[in-house]
Specification:
two-stranded antiparallel ribbon; 9 helices
Amino acid sequence: RLLDELAPGQYVTVYDQQGKVLTKIARSVVPGDEIITADGKHYRVTKVHDFSARARFLGADKEFLAWQEFFAQSTLPVAVGRPGDVAIYHTHSDESYVPSDGAASIPYNGGIFDVGDRFARALERQRVRVIHSRTPHDPHDAQAYVRSRRTAAQLLKSNPAAIFDVHRDGVPDPDFYRQHIRGETLSQLRLVIGRQNPHMQANLEFAKKLMARTNESYPGLVKEIFMGAGDYNQDLSPQSLLIEAGTYTLYKEEAQDGVGLLASVVPAVMGIGAQARPRIPETRTPGAWSALLWIIVITLGGIAAFLVLSAGGLGNARQRLKTFVTKELEFLRALRKHGEDNR
């Protein structure tokens, strides 16, 4: 099995067709991998050479943009949502942050556990029940996902609403992830989806909703969605995501602040905890009225087509409709006369 994550300091730069940098990532990148940027642009990797990759623009991701528009027009009611647990674990339990932890890797007890703790506590403040596993899966090798699969399977026995595998990236430049949001300096996040699992579409929809809603509240917090080869154990659940909380050259506290903000959005997206699922706004938008008009037109068209086909022609359909209307008017007149006679 190919080692999914590269060593700290090694990374692949992905360029678009014009040579502009799309992203940097310390993961193995192969043709067919895909990226959805924070503004909804969808790319597919077409060529990889050493630590450089090229990606082709596929167009705007319409589903993501639809969620983005929906959340921009929706309000999040403060209400008790349905019960639901969230499970958190760490496949690469050695991952750490050099400025805070003193090393990029601390076997069996990496700083990534502290990031998971912050994520868990922030979710609990939203009245979400959290199961956070600190089970180590060292060494950091190609079999780490095999070992962490047992942990994920154990966590799923409690039937959580979602399960998150929290990591950090290995890109050396801290400013690639560092972001200023609402006056705070913190780490951006990347959502990673495994392309080779039966729940890929469900997991991807979850990621799109989460990125759209998060960036509506905290612009730029979620950097992108990356769809890579492999499954990342996401075949175990239809709401499973891998989160990369910054990189090893950031302060751990910046990564903790990033996942803390993400946690404030997760319950609303999933309809659990202190906030219920977002409601469609009462005010109809032009798009909503347009959709409603099309539904009415299609329905009336279907009725008309049914009349023509069942009557055996347009002329017969007109006669049938005329007869129907005449009978209904006579019935209404008789009903009205009966009511007047009984007064």
